[in-house]
């Protein structure tokens, strides 16, 4: 199976052909995927070099002219390093862009901590008005990229699309807004975000719980969570492929008027300095199916067998 990032350049290249508003801005990373497209659209495929602050600033400048910029590099260089430009050049000027990241929380362990960004979504959460897509499969990534760029997108839409090498076995039909109900139960609600759905389904096999699948986490689908808790009870476990607890405030807000408990699972704050493999990081952070089952049942308590 190809990866989400494998889909990125072909999808955006087609969007460049289809829509004269679209431009792509790169900082060396990913440039090889746009060589042919750059010949067709030399004024709309821009490589600023290893200058991440300029990367975001150039995207904002394009947005000010009415263009729809797609800005791409590793997550740590797209959200963390140029955060001031994300805050000011985009947010303060009321213009938008589609920020598309790669490497996610720990997709390239050999790159070291400089290439890891488990706090990216939490950091964007400090800003107003961002839509955040976290696809769990290359097919979903393609759908969400198209949804983010247009034709519905306008220059004020600020969208973050978080690509990962981790993926579920099959893609689902996503719409860029709502959570999907994958399994129904009565003993609690587990929200699986993006590429962690398969692990969550494995962890909850045989348990009488509702599983919601989220590929768009901002705005947070409060209505879907409330509907799920009406049947399954108001104990909620969030399983996210980035910093643990990133969405606990959103879940608490959604259920503010009813008694509830929320457990946030995800990437821990402690830096793992023996970089190892992606699978070893997943296990170390307790995000494999076996560890998740232990943590979910420990929080929700015994649940009757799912029929």
Structure explained in plain terms:
The chain is of the alpha/beta class and 307 residues long. It contains 12 helices and 12 strands. The chain has 2 domains: 159 residues, Rossmann fold (3-Layer(aba) Sandwich); 121 residues, 3-Layer(aba) Sandwich (Rossmann fold). The two termini are 33 Å apart. Pfam families: Transket_pyr. InterPro entries: PDH/Transketolase, THDP-binding, Transketo_C/PFOR_II, Transketolase-like_Pyr-bd. GO terms for molecular function: magnesium ion binding.
Layout of SSEs?
Elements: H1 4-18, E1 22-26, H2 35-40, E2 45-47, H3 52-64, E3 68-74, H4 75-80, H5 83-92, E4 98-102, H6 120-124, E5 130-133, H7 138-149, E6 158-162, E7 180-183, E8 189-193, H8 197-203, E9 210-214, E10 216-218, H9 222-232, E11 235-243, H10 248-254, E12 261-267, H11 278-284, H12 289-300
Parallel strand pairs: 1-2, 1-3, 3-4, 4-6, 5-6, 8-9, 8-11, 11-12
Antiparallel strand pairs: 5-10, 7-9
Helix pairs in contact: 1-7, 3-5, 8-12, 9-10
Protein name: Transketolase
GO molecular function, one term: magnesium ion binding
Domain Transketolase-like pyrimidine-binding: 2-171
User: Which percent band covers the strand fraction?
Assistant: 15-25%
- Structural domain count: 2
Q: Architecture of the largest domain, CATH level 2?
A: 3-Layer(aba) Sandwich
The number of helical segments is: 12
Instruction: Let me know the CATH homologous superfamily of the largest domain.
Output: Thiamin diphosphate (ThDP)-binding fold, Pyr/PP domains
The order of strands across the largest sheet is 2-1-3-4-6-5-10
Low-confidence stretches: none
Largest sheet: 7 strands, mixed
CATH structural fold name of the largest domain: Rossmann fold
| H/E series | HEHEHEHHEHEHEEEHEEHEHEHH
- Termini separation: 33 Å
Oligomer: single chain
Number of strands: 12
- Mean of pLDDT: 95
The proportion of residues forming helix, as a percent range, comes to 25-40%
CATH class of the largest domain: Alpha Beta
Instruction: Compute the CA-based radius of gyration.
Output: 19 Å
Protein name: Transketolase
InterPro entries: PDH/Transketolase, THDP-binding, Transketo_C/PFOR_II, Transketolase-like_Pyr-bd
GO molecular function, one term: magnesium ion binding
Domain Transketolase-like pyrimidine-binding: 2-171
């Amino acid at each position: 199976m190809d990866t989400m990032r494998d889909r990125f350049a072909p999808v955006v290249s087609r969007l460049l052909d289809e829509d004269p508003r679209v431009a792509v801005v790169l900082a060396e990373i990913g440039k090889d995927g746009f060589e042919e497209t750059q010949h067709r659209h030399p004024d709309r495929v821009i490589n600023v070099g290893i200058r991440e602050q300029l990367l975001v600033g150039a995207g904002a400048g394009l947005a000010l002219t009415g263009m729809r910029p797609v800005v791409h590099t590793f997550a740590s260089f797209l959200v963390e390093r140029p955060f001031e430009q994300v805050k000011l050049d985009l947010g303060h000027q009321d213009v938008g862009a589609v920020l598309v990241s790669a490497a996610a929380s720990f997709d390239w362990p050999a790159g070291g901590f400089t290439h890891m960004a488990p706090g990216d979504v939490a950091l964007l959460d400090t800003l107003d008005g961002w839509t955040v897509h976290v696809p769990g499969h290359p097919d979903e990534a393609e759908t969400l990229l198209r949804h983010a760029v247009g034709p519905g997108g306008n220059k004020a839409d600020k969208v973050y699309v978080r690509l990962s090498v981790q993926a579920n076995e099959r893609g689902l039909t996503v719409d860029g807004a709502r959570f999907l109900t994958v399994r129904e139960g009565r003993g609690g609600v587990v929200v699986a975000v993006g590429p962690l759905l398969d692990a969550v389904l494995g962890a909850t096999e045989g348990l009488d719980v509702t599983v919601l699948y989220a590929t768009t986490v901002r705005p947070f689908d409060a209505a879907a969570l409330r509907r799920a808790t009406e049947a399954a009870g108001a104990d909620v476990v969030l399983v996210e492929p980035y910093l643990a607890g990133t969405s606990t405030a959103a879940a608490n807000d959604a259920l503010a008027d009813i008694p509830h408990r929320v457990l946030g699972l995800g990437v821990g704050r402690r830096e793992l300095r023996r970089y190892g493999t992606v699978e070893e990081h997943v296990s170390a952070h307790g995000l494999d199916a076996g560890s998740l089952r232990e943590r979910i049942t420990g929080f929700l308590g015994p649940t009757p067998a799912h029929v």
